[in-house]
Structure to design on (459 residues):
């Protein structure tokens, strides 16, 4: 039995294993499937724009590199909207005017940092898409997708969006978990905890993901397609240098042990299985975020009850090509209190509001989480996390862009703000590192993520 203490409130909740609450779900019906060819996009978003025209209709006109954009593989992605200027900027002084289109976390940041936190709002775009092979597999497999009895696994699912017309919170949670559908991702990412006085604790990781779910060779009954592999090598802080984590997620299994993880310790030169890896174990410099905070939520949802609150129009970080620009130095981006939002782009988009409430008797640092899922991609673009008192504790932003090589949507730098301590954590920073390799298809293999492979790498 383990315990986790909130840094501001000394409470802990105990729990052993857990399963998702029993909730009904319905397969994608023929009627719902027909909507994906009509009022809804192939991903289940509303095809039309909003009433006042501030959200455009979905065009999906660009697949891969946009026409007229000069890009070669390995370069930084050119910003197709670089010539645009903000329509307006939301500040603490005018936030009441935009109240209905702000998250609680954005409002809290504007109030906490009234002199410096800004939300620059640009024209909204819905121009990029997945390949027709992906959309075909959604139409083919989503009608037959089922959950395991405990709802911790799926059967016969498509490569993305197993529930394009979700009827329950659990279904929307699964759409979120499948949203990061880049098959190959290898990168070195910088990490930084910025304290209220401006001091920074640095981290650096080498990162590899292999999700063999590309539609051109996708088979939902394949044991390989039902897994997603990860490997992470710590470079900083120096006290953890050489530590390697590797493992895989099994999408189609029951039980609370659907993730297999091994750890290499450079001090002992031994590889050990880490059966409890996940949930709210601390990650990053100083253990600032949780394992399942990755890209705002990534992991089993079994400790929460999930509920769709509804849909909203919200200003969220979108099309953030500038955040990967090597000309933007960390000294300029990582300012006191919060990231420098002059380098960020916010757009008005429709989002699903998904609420997760901790089950009675189960343990997690966050008693409630509210996730804002972009309707066009199912990626979480903002999240508000609450402590056991019901106080908004951490508010997080995950800017996205469309990766031309991978032909998929990608989270750039991710920012986690602690509203109680005043510190924040910046993850997945790549400005001062080589360009991440993001591909549709991968040179990585299952063997690269095995315990033997990290044992050899450590030696």
């Amino acid at each position: 039995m383990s315990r986790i203490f909130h840094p501001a409130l000394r409470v802990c909740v105990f729990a052993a294993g857990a399963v998702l609450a029993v909730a009904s779900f319905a397969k994608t019906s023929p009627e719902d499937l027909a909507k994906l060819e009509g009022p809804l996009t192939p991903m289940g978003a509303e095809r039309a724009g909003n009433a006042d025209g501030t959200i455009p209709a979905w065009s999906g006109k660009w697949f891969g590199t946009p026409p007229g954009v000069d890009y070669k593989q390995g370069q930084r992605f050119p910003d197709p909207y670089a010539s645009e200027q903000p329509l307006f900027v939301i500040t603490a002084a005018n936030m009441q005017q935009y109240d209905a289109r702000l998250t609680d976390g954005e409002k809290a940041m504007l109030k906490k940092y009234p002199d410096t936190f800004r939300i620059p709002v640009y024209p909204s775009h819905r121009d990029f898409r997945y390949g027709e092979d992906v959309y075909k597999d959604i139409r083919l497999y989503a009608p037959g997708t089922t959950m395991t009895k405990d709802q911790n696994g799926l059967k016969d699912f498509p490569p993305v969006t197993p529930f394009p017309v979700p009827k329950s919170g659990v279904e929307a949670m699964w759409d979120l978990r499948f949203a990061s559908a880049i098959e190959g991702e290898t990168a070195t990412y910088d990490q930084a905890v910025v304290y209220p006085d401006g001091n920074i604790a640095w981290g650096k990781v080498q990162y590899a993901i292999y999700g063999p779910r590309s539609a051109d060779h996708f088979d939902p009954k394949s044991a390989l397609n039902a897994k997603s592999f990860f490997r992470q090598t710590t470079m900083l802080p120096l006290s953890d240098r050489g530590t390697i984590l590797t493992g895989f997620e099994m999408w189609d299994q029951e039980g609370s042990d659907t993730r297999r993880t091994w750890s290499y310790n450079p001090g002992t030169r031994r590889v050990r299985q880490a059966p409890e890896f996940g949930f709210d174990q601390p990650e990053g410099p100083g253990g600032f975020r949780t394992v399942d905070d990755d890209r705002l939520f990534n992991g089993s949802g079994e400790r929460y009850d999930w509920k769709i609150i509804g849909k909203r129009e919200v200003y969220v970080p979108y099309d953030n090509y500038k955040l990967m620009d090597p000309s933007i130095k960390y000294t300029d981006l990582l300012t006191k209190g919060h990231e420098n939002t002059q380098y960020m782009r916010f757009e008005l988009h429709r989002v699903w509001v998904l609420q997760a409430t901790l089950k009675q008797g189960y343990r997690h640092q966050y008693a409630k989480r509210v996730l804002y899922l972009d309707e066009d991609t199912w990626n979480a673009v903002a999240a508000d996390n609450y402590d056991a008192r019901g106080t908004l504790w951490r508010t997080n932003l995950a800017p996205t862009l469309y990766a031309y090589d991978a032909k998929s949507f990608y989270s750039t730098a991710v920012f986690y703000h602690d509203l109680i301590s005043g510190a924040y954590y910046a993850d997945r920073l790549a400005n001062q590192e080589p360009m991440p390799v993001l591909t549709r298809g991968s040179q990585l293999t299952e063997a690269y993520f095995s315990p033997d492979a990290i044992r050899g790498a450590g030696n």
